[in-house]
Amino acid sequence: MIPEVIKPVPVRPKKNALHFYKSVNVESAIESLKAENHVIIADYYSSGLLLLKELKKHLNKSLPNMSFLEQREYRAEYQKLSNLILMEIKNHSLAVKKAPAIGWLEKLYQESEPFYLSLPQIQGLNSAWQWYIKGVSIPVLRNKIHPFYGVYFPTRFDHLIVFDNWLKRYNGPKKSAMDIGIGSGVLSLQMMKYGFQKVYGTDVNQNAIIGLKEFMGETKLSRKIELDHGNLFGKWDKETELIVFNPPWLPKSHDLNRLDEAMYYHETLFDEFFSAAKERLLPDGRIVLLFSNLAQITGAAKEHPIERELANGGRYKLENYYKKRVKSASKKTKRNQSWRAKEEVELWELSMVG
Ligand SMILES: C[S@@+](CC[C@H](N)C(=O)[O-])C[C@H]1O[C@@H](n2cnc3c(N)ncnc32)[C@H](O)[C@@H]1O
């Protein structure tokens, strides 16, 4: 059974919450946030955006925001204070003027009573709704994907291009494959494109499973891609010729929520994956891992988990390795992201030893 959908949890405003209107002094609202009080936006949606902008300006004055680690610290403070800014939701809509219509407020919430969400939660719901309804074009796929709320989807595509080239060259059997951490289903859809008959997908994030089930509906695809909500291989214990995993690329440095789990890995994730994969891979089968040097070039990790497995695990050998330089970030960015110039995505094709 799939647990209930993940959604932003309503916030109960503190008694001394300040009501913010465009006419209210912004400084006093920021002082209120710093004193850990809630600020409720009472007139226009844009008043909330104005307060966020002023909060950023304020933090920029007091916190450096240059290195990768400083950026993390700045973001943590911004996150803490901005989450104290609230808006009311009434009848599945935002109760402020000139607010965007956000379909998730109806799709995800049954509440009939008014409730409050923080502005960053609302912004997250709003942009997720735009992605969901407009869809996201993926260069290696014919149709757009429609990512469900709270599910990772790719915004850069270099690794997908590398995987596509690998699939083009792959001439092994295509009866079945497993897609670990299926997310919005992009890798499975690529495998379908290249003629795989069946894909068994999993994800620890239930929204990924709920979203893909909704996306596939009763179509032919829903019989070709079978899903399970669970850790690593979930309930799938059959043998297969191909196991694909695009894991998180950075080691965990804080408690993880479900969306973070698309980005950050637990210390034991790779060892558990390699051990479970060995039980399920057919003798001539392949594991394909998509990875990146992001953790190494930003100093977030000293070890590369796949290199470590190959050096010490004794379970797999390297069949092929491909890498691709990631297109550099926009020149407009103010932060120091010089490490981006060195970013490369990697495809590791492994087979079993012995
Ligand atoms: C980087 S995203 C990749 C998603 C998708 N495969 C793609 O390539 O677009 C990693 C995915 O793995 C999932 N994930 C992380 N740890 C997992 C685990 N232990 N078991 C199953 N899925 C996991 C995350 O929820 C996320 O959807």
Q: What distance separates the N and C termini?
A: 38 Å
For the secondary structure, the number of strands is 14
Bound molecules: S-adenosylmethionine
> What structural class do helix, strand and pairing data support?
alpha/beta
Q: What is the averaged pLDDT score? A: 93
How many H/I helical runs? 12
Low-confidence stretches: none
- The percentage of residues in β strands lies in 15-25%
CATH topology (level 3) name of the largest domain:
Rossmann fold
Number of domains: 2
Name the CATH superfamily classification of the largest domain: Vaccinia Virus protein VP39
Rg of Cα set: 22 Å
Q: Strands of the biggest beta sheet: in what spatial order? A: 8-7-6-9-12-14-13
Q: In this structure, how is the largest beta sheet organized?
A: 7 strands, mixed
* CATH architecture identity of the largest domain: 3-Layer(aba) Sandwich
CATH class of the largest domain: Alpha Beta
Helical proportion? Answer: 25-40%
Form type: globular
* Order of helical and strand elements: EHEHHEEHEHHEHEHHEEEEHEHHEE
Descriptive notes:
- The chain has 354 residues and is of the alpha/beta class.
- It folds into 2 domains: 115 residues, no CATH class; 195 residues, Vaccinia Virus protein VP39 (Rossmann fold), CATH 3.40.50.
- The protein has 12 helices and 14 strands.
- α7 links the parallel β6 and β7.
- α1 packs across α2, α2 packs across α3 and α6 packs parallel to α7.
- The radius of gyration is 22 Å and the shape is globular.
- The model has no long low-confidence stretch (mean pLDDT 93).
- S-adenosylmethionine binds next to α7 and β7.
